């Protein structure tokens, strides 16, 4: 059946809407190959359609299959881009190695460009007055308290706070930290809020 | 918007506190507050009141409406009226939740007040469900909802707007369907209809 | 700490107080969160508020750490930063999602000087679209046969749903808002009294949101 593989591809990636799967190189290669085959067949038959009217339908069906393959491949890449974007907001510009592995080289390139674009937009905020205190990846929730009590889940190392204080984050160590400055670490799972 | 964001907006409301310390006026971006004189009431934003209370720096003066008798009247009125009655303020639920959560000791009859406010909320919510039902049955393209507070409006999102959107979509489809409806025969050059991927 | 109540936001010596700037920003944030489409930017207000924050942060550093006033100011700043960040982030989300249509509309608006995006946002949108195009081309489009290679922008474009229903509160009395009637072709006109609240389609009231006559809730 035409365009069967591309549907498999989409179904597989739909199965885990919240996580990103490894990039399916091989399947995509096969889909592109199917497209080449369909295209060549249509080229060969296109000229004959003037004599043989019944061929016209065949050509049309193949063309629809080509369009479908194309649309679904773009949808696959697009939905992955959406997921990759959320990685930038969660992890910042440096991805943990196990996450990085799930992206293809091209996707990693896209991630870097997305990240650079976002960074230069954020730098432009307050540039005229020389103010650089706005990080859009922070301040995600309405502030409730200035400080929060957290426990560290790994041996993270030193964390320097904006007032110059340095805290040592060790596994199971407890801290009372400015809420605005540990949100990213909480999102990444390094710190856990004690409630 | 999520309930935390509505709460955040409600926290800008001005309430009265009695500080146990003295300080000069404080010049915030949202306005000037103070001077703080120990034992004398002054007005501050709710978020500041909560913050001072948590640091045990003040007592919160319960808003006028946070009173058993006043609330019983509101509750009766709400029961009697077919429409939504005007609440003491736009963010009564946020005020109640925060003040009764952090400063219950400063509110006389706090437990009783909590129950009545909960009752009022429930009466209004059930009214809201009935009016949504009526709105949808009447064709669901427009509704007036005076006196509903932001938190109450937010509680019917996304249900009500989505239901109305869906009804609109169905009406559009019915309207555009021509009497001799048939499937478009697809052509090689597909029309440039927009599609979301 | 000195008073910060008077701030210049425009060249025309028009004085506006910091609390008004803050209120304007909060309204803009609320509308931006609740409107389906991107709204005209409020860059003056954002920049003015960033200046206030900067000024305030410098002053806080002069206070002893344990001073309760320092905590109060910090708390207020983190509230304001939340509004600004959430506001700008909401705009970025829309810019990314509706990138193609926003850029098309924006180019027309720029000709008449009624642009909705800030310079920074416009650059961001262009770069975002370019990156997306490059990626789609590199990974699949360039490897497709013949005329399949082209990226059809009109097919990729996502449009905001302007017919969606929204809640609003009228800031002043507005008469003659036309509601389309799909069944009977009998369009209805309604008046929005000051302070009244309604649920209706976004499209007929979009301009009222933009000129501040109504507020989305």
From TrEMBL, chain A:
Ranges of residues in domain DNA replication complex GINS protein PSF1 C-terminal: 144-194
Gene3D superfamilies the record matches: 1.20.58.1030
Signal peptide: none
Pfam families: PSF1_C, Sld5
GO biological-process terms attached to the record: DNA strand elongation involved in mitotic DNA replication
UniProtKB keywords: DNA replication, Nucleus
InterPro entries: GINS_A, GINS_bundle-like_dom_sf, GINS_Psf1, PSF1_C
GO cellular component, one term: GINS complex
Domain GINS subunit, chain residue ranges per copy: 45-125
Subunit structure, as described in the record: Component of the GINS complex.
Role, per record: Required for correct functioning of the GINS complex, a complex that plays an essential role in the initiation of DNA replication, and progression of DNA replication forks. GINS complex seems to bind preferentially to single-stranded DNA.
UniProt name for this protein: DNA replication complex GINS protein PSF1
Organism (species): Diatraea saccharalis (sugarcane borer)
TrEMBL record, chain B:
GO cellular component: CMG complex; GINS complex
Compartment(s) where it occurs, according to its Swiss-Prot or TrEMBL record: Nucleus
Keyword Nucleus: yes
The organism's place on the tree of life at top rank: Eukaryota
GO biological process: DNA replication; double-strand break repair via break-induced replication
Domain GINS subunit: 65-168
Keywords assigned: DNA replication, Nucleus
Low complexity composition bias: residue spans: 184-197
Chief place where the protein resides: nucleus
UniProt keyword Nucleus, yes or no: yes
Domain DNA replication complex GINS protein PSF2 N-terminal: 2-61
Family classification: Belongs to the GINS2/PSF2 family.
Quaternary structure, from the entry: Component of the GINS complex.
This protein's name: DNA replication complex GINS protein PSF2
Organism: Diatraea saccharalis (sugarcane borer)
From TrEMBL, chain C:
Biological-process GO terms, alphabetical: DNA-templated DNA replication; double-strand break repair via break-induced replication
Chief location category: nucleus
Domain GINS subunit: 52-139
Organism superkingdom: Eukaryota
Alphabetical keyword list: DNA replication, Nucleus
Cell compartments where the protein resides: Nucleus
Every DNA replication complex GINS protein SLD5 C-terminal domain range: 160-217
UniProt cross-references to Gene3D superfamilies, sorted A to Z: 1.20.58.1030, 3.40.5.60
Keyword Nucleus (UniProt): yes
CDD domains: GINS_A_Sld5, GINS_B_Sld5
Annotated Gene Ontology cellular component terms: GINS complex
Role of this protein: The GINS complex plays an essential role in the initiation of DNA replication.
Family assignment from sequence similarity: Belongs to the GINS4/SLD5 family.
Protein name: DNA replication complex GINS protein SLD5
């Amino acid at each position: 059946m035409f365009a069967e593989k591309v549907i498999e591809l989409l179904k597989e990636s739909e199965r885990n809407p919240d996580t990103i799967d490894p990039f399916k190189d091989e399947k995509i290669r096969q889909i592109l190959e199917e497209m080449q085959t369909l295209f060549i067949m249509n080229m060969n038959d296109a000229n004959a359609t003037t004599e043989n009217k019944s061929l016209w339908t065949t050509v049309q069906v193949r063309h629809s299959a080509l369009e479908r393959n194309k649309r679904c491949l773009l949808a696959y890449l697009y939905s992955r881009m959406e997921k990759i974007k959320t990685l930038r907001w969660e992890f910042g510009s440096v991805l943990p190695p196990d996450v990085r592995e799930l992206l293809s080289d091209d996707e990693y390139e896209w991630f870097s460009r997305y990240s650079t674009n976002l960074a230069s937009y954020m730098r432009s905020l307050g540039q005229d007055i020389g103010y650089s205190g706005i990080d859009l990846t922070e301040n995600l929730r309405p502030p409730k308290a200035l400080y929060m009590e957290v426990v560290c889940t790994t041996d993270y190392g030193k964390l320097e706070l904006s007032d110059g204080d340095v805290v040592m984050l060790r596994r199971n160590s407890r801290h009372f930290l400015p809420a605005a400055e540990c949100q990213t670490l909480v999102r990444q799972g390094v710190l856990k809020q004690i409630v | 918007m999520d309930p935390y964001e509505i709460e955040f907006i409600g926290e800008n409301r001005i309430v009265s506190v009695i500080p146990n310390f003295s300080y000069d006026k404080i010049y915030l971006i949202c306005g000037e507050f103070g001077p703080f004189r120990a034992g004398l009431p002054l007005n501050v934003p709710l978020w500041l009141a909560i913050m001072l209370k948590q640091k045990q720096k003040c007592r919160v003066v319960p808003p006028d409406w946070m009173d058993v008798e006043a609330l019983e009247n509101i509750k009766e009125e709400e029961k009697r009226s077919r429409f939504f009655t005007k609440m003491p303020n736009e963010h009564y639920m946020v005020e109640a939740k925060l003040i009764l959560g952090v400063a219950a000791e400063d509110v006389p009859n706090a437990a009783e007040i909590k129950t009545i406010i909960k009752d009022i909320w429930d009466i209004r919510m059930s009214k809201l469900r009935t009016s949504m039902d009526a709105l949808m049955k009447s064709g669901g393209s427009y509704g007036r909802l005076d006196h509903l507070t932001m938190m109450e409006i937010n509680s019917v999102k996304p249900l009500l707007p989505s239901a109305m959107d869906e009804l609109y979509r169905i009406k559009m489809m019915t309207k555009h369907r021509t009497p001799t409806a048939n499937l478009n025969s697809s052509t090689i050059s597909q029309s440039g209809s927009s599609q979301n991927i | 700490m000195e008073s910060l109540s008077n701030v210049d936001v425009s060249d025309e010596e028009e004085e506006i107080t910091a609390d008004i700037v803050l209120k304007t920003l909060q309204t803009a944030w609320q509308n931006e969160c609740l409107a389906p489409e991107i709204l005209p930017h409020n860059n003056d207000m954002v920049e003015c508020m960033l200046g206030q924050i900067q000024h305030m942060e410098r002053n806080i550093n002069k206070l002893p750490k344990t001073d309760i006033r320092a905590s109060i100011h910090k708390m207020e700043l983190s509230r304001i930063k939340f509004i600004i960040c959430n506001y700008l982030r909401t705009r970025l989300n829309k810019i990314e999602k509706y990138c193609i249509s926003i850029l098309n509309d924006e180019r027309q608006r720029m000709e008449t000087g009624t642009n909705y995006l800030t310079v920074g946002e416009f650059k961001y949108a262009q770069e975002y679209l370019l990156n997306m195009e490059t990626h789609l081309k590199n990974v699949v489009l360039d490897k497709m046969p013949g005329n399949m290679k082209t990226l059809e922008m009109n097919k990729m474009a996502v449009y905001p749903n302007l017919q969606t229903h929204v809640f609003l509160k009228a800031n002043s009395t507005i008469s003659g808002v036309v509601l389309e009637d799909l069944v009977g072709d009998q369009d209805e006109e309604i008046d929005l009294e000051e302070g009244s609240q309604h649920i209706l389609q976004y499209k007929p009231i979009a301009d009222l949101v933009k000129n501040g006559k109504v507020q989305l809730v």
